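Quick question: what would this complex look like in 3D?
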Amino acid sequence: MQSVKIGILGLGTVGSGTVSVLKRNSKEISRRAGRGIEILRAADKNLDSPKTCDLNAIDLTDDAFSVVNDPEIQIIVELIGGTGIARDLVMQAIENGKHVVTANKALIAMHGNELFAKAQEKGVTIAFEAAVAGGIPIIKAIREGLAANRIEWLAGIINGTGNFILTEMRDKGRNFADVLAEAQALGYAEADPTFDVEGIDAAHKLTIMASIAFGIPLQFYKAYTEGISKISQEDVQYAEELGYHIKHLGIAKKTSQGVELRVHPTLIPKRRLIANVNGVMNAVVVKGDAVGPTLYYGAGAGAEPTASAVVADIVDIVRALTTDPENRVPHLAFQPDSLKDTPILSMSEVVTSYYLRINTEDKPGVLADITRIFSEQDINIEAILQKQPEEEEGTVPIIMLTQPVVEKNMDEAIAQIEALDTVKHAIMRIRMESLG
Amino acid sequence: MQSVKIGILGLGTVGSGTVSVLKRNSKEISRRAGRGIEILRAADKNLDSPKTCDLNAIDLTDDAFSVVNDPEIQIIVELIGGTGIARDLVMQAIENGKHVVTANKALIAMHGNELFAKAQEKGVTIAFEAAVAGGIPIIKAIREGLAANRIEWLAGIINGTGNFILTEMRDKGRNFADVLAEAQALGYAEADPTFDVEGIDAAHKLTIMASIAFGIPLQFYKAYTEGISKISQEDVQYAEELGYHIKHLGIAKKTSQGVELRVHPTLIPKRRLIANVNGVMNAVVVKGDAVGPTLYYGAGAGAEPTASAVVADIVDIVRALTTDPENRVPHLAFQPDSLKDTPILSMSEVVTSYYLRINTEDKPGVLADITRIFSEQDINIEAILQKQPEEEEGTVPIIMLTQPVVEKNMDEAIAQIEALDTVKHAIMRIRMESLG
């Protein structure tokens, strides 16, 4: 059978990794796919800069549109990233009736709805396994492997930089800023770390997983994001003492009111497997009503792990090339006409447990004030840890774990406690999940 | 579009779970599959015994062949188990041009080669996700999700009963026989626990995973199996002290000499995620050359977790009903004409590290004898733990961890050490894997 001809857009880290994997494992891959996969052309805007892969026998250009418009090419592999030129190229490829494989989470999370609609119209597939959690086949697991289930929730460590920072803070007692600087030096974190540490990157990935889990349109702009930059060494240690690790989680949960879509630091019981996912590794827990909790773990970034997902998508498309488009796996797991517009809940409506650190003056009556306010807001306390006064400040940290409460009540309680004369600092709050 | 009509053979635990999941989640499932899935008929040899699922609107019979021969039925779901009648029914279903979904690991591991050849000839699919690790979509992950990779090795906790026993032994200091009796009372273990604790069940599953990972025919009869019944409480504790957990692993590894296929108790460093998979849960680590190590975790047995995998297979087949058979995912991941007859290595050729417990008399010169024998067999010692003499016996347990060595050398060394006058007991040996 004739080889399938592909064109690669972007020869950066992932693009070079994809070329390397396709060349090195070409026999293994075609033994699986049933036919060869040939990289006919590749485009990169900086052809003069050195590349880390063997580009022999590949027709190179700096004009990506010429690849997209090449009638010989059947599959376009978009590895440029971002939502500018990448979007135009993908749209043009679809218009030209080509299948698309992409690792671009921002593009899918922000423009997936229109891209999928166009792809549907043209009878082509957009595959995006590499957009979420790198080499972990999590899209396939949720979309196909768990197709029997009503997915109840999913929760993931889906940003390696953030997990590296939190792991170092816990294992070595270091501070956020210090570890971030190292991560930047090591190349884990970008010069502008906002996307990683403030949860935007994780929210892109979470948005995509939530859509395929619950059968809802992509709604990135409704995701709640809270970063890890405010997590202090003392919070890490108090959490530890209480039996928890702090992880930066993306959480999507279906409730009777709607869908929760939120990225924030989270206390997780240490005994959970996901609490022990360390360093730059990623993991996602998916809870289905039939299967119960399942977990998927692996490298969430890097040249070859991401290339692994890109190439798996290429093989899937090759296998389905002759399939009637109606019978292919739908982009968002559910048939396009049966996506539901379930509302995304605002954070004030979300119910979670909390870790609170309240620094108060060491005076009688403080705890009575706090517990009275909690009681008025229907907040039940699960555990209290009161520490010795800190010498220099004369304040006492009170650590509290609460039972689940709706966030608006917690907001109100915190506002009232912060208004007390005896409370001089802003209260630190971190949400908790049992993930059981 | 018309519903797809299926027939279920066997209404035991998994059969009833499958009916329940298909009925409860029918809307969710058809939103994904694009069409309804209708259980037209079901067969069970004990129709009079009470069933745990709603059988309303299903045509029941005690003649399974009448279901297999029903021209209206497109997919046969075999949930009887074993290699007797189940094999005849599956063969007949294929002959009749029907697709088959099965949870039957023994059937696939022992007769898969002939069944797949017949299915290939008839242009139908045999799907068997539920045969390995229950609800974890591990077949899909290896076969499709990691299609870009040369798989280097995989290692799994793939028998829940065995893992429950080892977890209880470690956490509660209990003995093997004691926990086994409880597992039988709880219904985790069969009255005849041989299949579970001696590694036969795990070897069935390992055989299947190895074939799809390496592209080799199914060769169950060449798998090495060693059970956990000889593991003592003191071994569990010494392992703990040295930083390891003991797990019953199925391991498949590709080396330059051939393929290793082995089930045995294994020491794993505690820091590995899989070392922390406890109770009846299953997990599989798969190492690909591009993606690195990935891990898949979930319930490995039980009515609804297994049904989750059965139904996912049904949805896959429904989606591919109109596909040209040539373009479907091959049964063993690789195209049938490109399976390779890579030899399965005998255990004497396998290279691993070892944990050894040698009970010797407390006399001078013993350690010198042992280390001389090791040296002659090219065995390097990584760590030694020498304990106080045990009062009643006057013997000293010496615990040793070795560096990797070929098993035949270790066999020879153990034979020589056991022949020493000062060594009164058989040496306990447990293989070690770093799984890094």
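Answer marked as accepted. Residues 105-122 of chain B form the longest helix (18 residues).
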